[in-house]
Amino acid sequence: MNDLVIRVVASVVTACLFCFATFQSLGAMQQAGYKNGGFWRWLKRRENLYFNRLWVWALCLALTGAVTSLSFSFLDVRWALAISAVPFFAVSLFFLYADGKYALKVPVKRTGRLRRLFVVYLLLVAILADVAITLLGFLSEKNGSELYALVAYTPFALMPILLPVLLCLANAIDAPFENLRNRRFVRRAKSVLSTSDVIKIGVVGSYGKTSVKNILKNVLAEKYAVIETPASYNTPIGIAKTVTDGEFHGKQILIAEMGARKSGDIAELCKLVEPDYAIFTGICEQHVQTFGSLENIWNEKKEILRCGAKKVVCGAGLKARVEAEFSGAENVVIAETSAVENVKLEGTKTSFALRLGKETIEIETPLLGMAAVENIQLAATLALALGVTPEQIRAGIEKTLPIPHRLQLIENGGAYILDDGYNCNPRGAEEGLAALGRFAGRKCIVTPGIVECGVLEERVNADLGEKIAAAELDKVILVGETLVGAVKDGYAQGGGKSENLVTVKTLKDAQAVLGEWITAGDAVLFLNDLPDVY
Prior knowledge:
This protein has 20 helices and 15 strands. By secondary structure, the protein is an alpha/beta fold. Strand 10 (about 410) and strand 11 form a beta hairpin. The mean pLDDT is about 90.
């Protein structure tokens, strides 16, 4: 009985130590959308040394444990093995401390799902530890050699290299329960929405969804009590969280951002929200990786035009497609470019005149570029249809500030930083470069390239390289290894100056290069900051 207690305690303590020491890997799993494939791709990335660190940890455990046990062989075998546990835990604690220094760029969100996954992971590790200890103890007894007994548990020290596999197994076990739980949660949100009088607005598109949502919220708030899905929450769960939150009660309008990564996503969201109104910003190559083609993206996103909404405001770039397939649809409105006049794009602000019905309003905003003009027009057009006056629309736009990491201008020590680090797409990259070009001083771009474009990824990044070359920037800093090859090829093809280009491994390295280069009056565009799973 005493041996059983010792074995169980050793298994649980070891499992706790192993799981807490590898907590960062749960963050990577979270960023991968709890998909084992995405997590494994992160693990196998050439520049990712996580698996290498696990090997070093395991080999150090095996070596220190065996050497310590043999060094104290003059004592009883049990005492020698007990003493060998000291360096085992010391090395593991050191790994826990050292691995904490490798912080993920995207902090781990301690959600309910993450906690539940951690518990399953912990249980699996504890069970495997117990099985391993029992089996190795049995083999030691069978062998009967004292020398063998001293090193019998050395293979147990190699367990850290199995931890990623155990995490994937834990995720596979937990996933069906999470999916069931999520379906119940979404059904509950559906019930709340179906019995509510709230006006529901959906925002769909390959780009600009969050920005349009932010502008629309501020404009509609001049007349209505408004709630919107926070940040970039654009899945059924994200919408359900908003609807079931206490803040939802008493609101007159819900603005739901609707994202799609695969066929059927928009239809599912429309079924949940049943939008009364909608905005369709546009489409681009973003998410070709999961959709396969730009045509498939259009076929998915256009579901918003079939959802039964009273009015769907579409970006001007969609005009040809919409007129070809939805000609005569009374609920579809194109935000015509002719309604925008006297556009002045400057480095720190944007101004223009916007015609709304019979009235024209003058707008000045810290939102930058033509994308901001288009986003404002989309939001204003729908707001007008909801009875918001042109003057209220102008007041709401004046209160709208840039969203962090979406072409956000930051002044620092006389230098200008354009932070466009969130989820870049080809359209956004073009806008970012144009915004950078409006500054008078030296100009620099820091980018790892554009992801999620699937079979078009190489072409998209080569095009980006050519546009960077055409911009004639004073410094070009490419980050990482994932996509920079195509960007470099495009930069060279476009006649870019090789002496202005630097390639570094990490964003931290890029910041070090930038720190030595930048002076007051310079402008830097941070275009895309890939999360850890890339």
